[in-house]
Amino acid sequence: MRIDVVTIFPEYLEPLNVSLVGKARARGQLDVRVHDLRQWTHDRHHTVDDTPYGGGPGMVMKPEPWGEALDAIEASGPQGTAPVMVVPTPSGRPFTQRLAVELSAKPWLVFTPARYEGIDRRVVDAYAERWEVHEVSIGDYVLAGGEAAVLVITEAVARLLPGVLGNAESHRDDSFAPGAMADLLEGPVYTKPPVWRDRDIPEVLLSGHHGKIARWRRDQAFRRTSALRPDLIERCDPAALDKHDRAL
Ligand code: ADE
Question: Where does this protein reside within or beyond the cell (predicted)?
């Protein structure tokens, strides 16, 4: 997968050199290119923002540098191929595991993290006529810019790429992964030592009884979800949960 990021703070994306994403890049599984938006400005001050039409506080990002940046990035790819544009914005649709899975199947993503009050609307409108565009929010809060959202979305997507996670099974039981535990949060996990500060681990985990362990994990997941995310229980298909129970 190729990922382009256009930003006025390229250094903000440096964590993409570290850990899972950094390793995927080093292995050639992920081609990440970070671009400074100001390279597509032409005035002495490299201006990227201006006052909003209609008045109001703050500044709006000018459309011209974004248009030049996105055209240049498109031209740098295979002829006739358009990237999928991902626009981080608090007014986007919520980022979910489902969208991470959808994006992980795309060969090429371009992120356009904004600062200030956002990008002139005509940019998204213009590219949406030619490209697939997703306006995405990582949560109901307002960040100072979209760069942190790019880090979040990239990590969620990269770990789904084939061969990126060491153990192909490791995202099967993730909270929010599709499957038997769909829509349940992951329950607690334990490792050695068996006693720590007088605290034992749940006995069932030492039983070697795979059916009982699976049953216990599902119950824990269900309890945790009921306590912390009752909205997810509401959305659960009771028939699917029952089917899973009978299979144990
Ligand atoms: N930019 C500012 N806040 C954001 C959010 N919550 N999600 C995505 N991009 C953002």
Answer: Cytoplasm
pLDDT tens sequence across 14-35: 999 999 999 999 999 999 999 9
- The matching CATH number, chosen from 2.60.40.730, 3.40.50.300, 1.10.1270.20, 3.40.50.2000, for 173-248 is 1.10.1270.20
Tell me the one-letter amino acid at 176. F
Going by alpha carbons, the residue nearest to atom 4 of ligand 1 is 90
Atom nearest to 89 CA in ligand 1: 9
Q: What is the ipTM of this complex?
A: 0.99
Q: What is the third-level CATH fold of 2-158? A: Alpha/beta knot (3.40.1280)
Give the residue numbers annotated as catalytic, written as ranges.
90, 117, 159, 174
Do 171 and 160 touch, CB atoms closer than 8 A?
yes
Nearest CA to ligand 1 atom 7: 137
Q: How far is the CA of 35 from the centre of ligand 1 (A)?
A: 20
Question: How much is the pTM?
Answer: 0.92
Distances (CA, A) of 82 to 6, 26, 48, 100: 16, 25, 25, 19
